[in-house]
Write a structure and sequence with these properties.
Oligomer: heterotrimer
Strand order of the largest sheet of chain A: 2-1-3-4-5
Number of strands of chain B: 8
Shape of chain A: globular
Chains: A alpha/beta, B alpha+beta, C alpha/beta
CATH class of the largest domain in chain A: Alpha Beta
CATH topology of the largest domain in chain A: Rossmann fold
Strand content of chain A: 15-25%
Structural class of chain A: alpha/beta
Helix content of chain B: 40-55%
Largest sheet of chain B: 3 strands, antiparallel
Radius of gyration of chain A: 19 Å
Strand order of the largest sheet of chain B: 1-2-3
Low-confidence stretches of chain A: none
Number of strands of chain A: 9
CATH superfamily of chain B: Cytochrome-c3 Hydrogenase, chain B
Order of helices and strands of chain A: HEHEEHEHEHEEEE
Low-confidence stretches of chain B: none
Chain lengths: 177, 361, 115
């Protein structure tokens, strides 16, 4: 049988978006995919389509005009997904912190799993980050695959019946038991 | 009835390194109108230069305008400040500045060439050129300590000396790069599938190059003799063997050949610098606060870069105006797109070697 | 660098007379905030194949003035004019806002910030 989760770890696809960086980190990502560093030996391939990607590489501090695109690309990616912030400015804003048209770092808009520092970051660090992201991706996949079991009564939240809060993953202990 | 289709390209696209959005108005296959949105990367660096940073640190801030031509940005700013302060730097520092400027040009042109090949569908050539580009990145790292953002130039000179072992390594690697580039020359002129994608496509005539004020390899491929290295005397480019490279066709192929010839010329310049590097200090202390205004131009890999700096005698400057090469080429870009096939648009765009983070600052 | 003062009324005629498209290279339009709610607009040109020869036409204006467009004389000026509108919040004939700035960004960031 075709087993998607097995291949997802072996061949994660990368989506790259420049949210306002100086190009320095972008050309280092490109260098990663090129022969010397060759990220593709991990099965990684750079794709332009968010709907087929597993790892989201973001560079640059988020500028006002790229905010919407960033969030939209993130929401279009299917679960499980991992976000890597590449470079100092995407981690914290870096040298662009507090500039007028900049929003200081990617994690103001989307949750970030791996932070890769450096201005400009080096290909070795990016490879380390991606390998780390693969572990997180596997963990997230496992989390997702655990079935949910409904233990308690449904609650009424904002006049909507909600069972999500009462659901527990199998194997987790119910605190009230 | 005429019917047109609007096709967007960007802001996120596999063919684009940076966010830019083009809206092509197409009639069947032909592009009849272009609208571009280049403001995705606007960060407000010009304002920060006058409100946030003191003049002696701006050299490192403006390097972050663009990662590819970082060295040209910090060099232009530094030369402008040195002009205002009236200091003279040593000859050795000048030579080392040219050395890094030309190494940067080599790696930037190689990136552009590989990207053009990728967008023409020639993936193997992309990989080859990117692989060989690492030879240049390696010596940049040896010389400056970083692969991309060098921060090598400071007001009064440069930050690191060139040791004899590094000089030897640079010569070795450049020799190897030279052999590879000669190989590419052959591919780019004779490879059938590349010529099919490049020859006669995206052409800019000489007259249009004048009218739209084209600069850099784009203008030189059309036969316009504009190279700022020929028009300035802050750095001794003519002493180290600078020769202007032009072509007359004006199409993508001509731009590629101009870039290849420039790489060969830059390699020659680097070799000349290393062979005839003068003795002396690499750093001269320059004191004072900038006062007055200065315009400094330099040839970045993509064309003419202009800095206008105005100081008022304090540590904070009045104005730093950055005019980047891609910014002033946008009218020419839009003109070239009109009348081309939409399928060629990514390859034409890559052949301009646009740098949007420069454009939007 | 040669600086020549012009007024807004005459700038089009002056540049029209001066600009020969095969001799002069149009660099950019630059803005400069001055004291007392004034600004300076500079039209910068350089000569082809000459050693560092540049000419700057400048005019001192108020922020409320309308700057005439030179796009019909120099087509490549269009992008500089749009930037000027965005950065200083002045009006230039035929150029609209929105090259760089969004609606919620700080408007006209360079106007008056150096005073």
């Amino acid at each position: 049988m075709f087993d998607l989760k097995k291949y997802r770890k072996k061949s994660p696809w990368i989506l790259h978006y420049n949210a306002g960086s100086c190009n320095g980190c972008d050309i280092e990502i490109l260098a990663c995919l090129a022969p010397k560093y060759d990220l593709e030996r991990f099965g990684v391939i750079n794709t332009g389509n968010p709907k087929q990607s597993d790892i989201f590489l973001v560079t640059g501090p988020v500028t006002y005009r790229s905010r919407e695109r960033l969030v939209e690309l993130y929401t279009q990616m299917p679960e499980p997904k991992v976000v890597i912030a590449v470079g100092s400015c995407s981690c914290t804003g870096g040298v662009f912190r507090d500039m007028v048209n900049v929003e200081d770092g990617v994690d103001r808009y989307i949750p970030v799993d791996v932070y890769v520092a450096g201005c400009a970051t080096s290909p070795e660090l990016i490879i380390d980050g991606v390998v780390k992201a693969l572990e997180i991706l596997e963990q997230k996949t496992k989390e997702m695959e655990k079935p949910l079991k409904l233990f308690r009564e449904a609650t009424l939240q904002n006049s909507i019946v909600n069972r999500r809060h009462t659901a527990l993953k199998v194997g987790e202990k119910d605190e009230e038991d | 009835m005429k019917q047109t289709i609007n096709i967007p390209l960007g802001s996120q696209h596999i063919a684009l390194l940076e966010p830019v959005r083009f809206k092509f108005e197409c009639e069947n296959e032909k592009i009849i109108g272009v609208d571009s949105d280049v403001g995705f990367v606007h960060r407000g660096i010009e304002r920060a230069c006058t409100t946030k940073f003191k003049f002696d640190s701006i050299g490192y801030v403006v390097a972050r305008v663009c990662g590819l031509c970082a060295i040209t940005h910090s060099l232009s700013y530094t030369v402008a400040i040195e002009k205002l302060l009236g200091g003279e730097i040593s000859k050795k520092a000048k030579y080392l500045r040219i050395l890094l400027l030309e190494l940067d040009r080599i790696h930037s042109h190689m990136l552009c060439l590989s990207h053009t090949c990728e967008n023409a569908g020639f993936e193997a050539m992309f990989m080859r050129i990117m692989g060989d580009r690492e030879l240049v990145m390696e010596i940049q790292e040896l010389l400056t300590g970083n692969r991309v953002q060098f921060d090598y130039i400071s007001i009064g000179g440069v930050n690191r000396d060139l040791s004899s072992t590094v000089a030897l390594k640079i010569k070795e690697n450049l020799y190897e790069v030279k052999q590879k580039v000669l190989g590419y020359m052959d591919e780019f002129t004779h490879n059938w599938s590349l010529s099919l994608k490049f020859k006669g496509i995206g052409a800019l005539s000489l007259d249009d190059a004048y009218i739209f004020n084209a600069i850099g390899p784009l203008a030189r491929a059309s036969g316009l003799n504009i190279d700022v290295r020929n028009e300035i005397d802050y750095l001794p480019f003519n002493e180290v063997g600078f020769l202007m490279q032009t072509h007359s066709d004006g199409d993508i192929n001509a731009r590629n050949l101009v870039r290849l010839n420039e790489i060969l010329n830059s390699i020659l310049m680097c070799e000349n610098i290393i062979n005839g590097l003068p003795e002396g200090e690499i750093f001269t202390k320059i004191k004072g606060k900038p006062k007055g205004e200065a315009i400094v131009r330099f040839e970045a890999p993509r064309g003419e870069l202009m800095y206008y700096v105005k100081g008022n005698g304090t540590a904070m400057l009045d104005r730093v105006r950055i005019k980047t090469p891609t910014f002033s080429s946008i009218p020419a870009f839009s003109h070239i797109f009109v009348g081309q096939d939409y399928a060629d648009a990514p390859a034409i765009l890559a052949s301009f070697d646009p740098c949007l983070s420069c454009t939007a600052k | 660098m040669k600086k020549i003062e012009v007024s807004l009324g005459t700038v089009r005629d002056v540049i029209g007379d001066f600009y020969e498209y095969k001799k002069w290279h149009f660099l950019t339009i630059n803005g400069l905030a001055l004291a007392e709610n004034k600004m300076e607009v500079q039209w910068i040109f350089s000569k082809y194949e000459a050693l560092d020869e540049s000419v700057v036409y400048f005019a001192q204006i108020a922020y409320t003035d309308v700057i005439p467009s030179i796009v019909d004389l120099i087509p490549s000026a269009i992008i500089s004019q749009r930037e000027l509108v965005d950065m200083f919040g002045v009006q230039v004939e035929g150029s609209e806002k929105g090259l760089y700035l969004d609606e919620d960004s700080l408007q006209s960031p360079l106007s008056g910030c150096s005073i």
